[in-house]
Amino acid sequence: MISFHSLEDRIVKTFIARESRSEVDRRAPFAPEKPHRLRSIGRIKPSDAEVRANPRARSAVMRVAERTEVPA
Does the pLDDT value for residue 52 go beyond 80? Predict the structure, then answer.
């Protein structure tokens, strides 16, 4: 996912964070945790050369996540 604005990036960032962590039910601490659907890999920002060539690229962020085997 590539986002070009900080508001877009926040939505993408929270979605990936929410879907890439395991959840434990506090009311049933001994129940098995729900597996996560995504595995967060990282983010990529434009290089200095790319920003010099295209100044509007400075706010672009590419966030990378991989789907796991858990069904949607």
Answer: yes
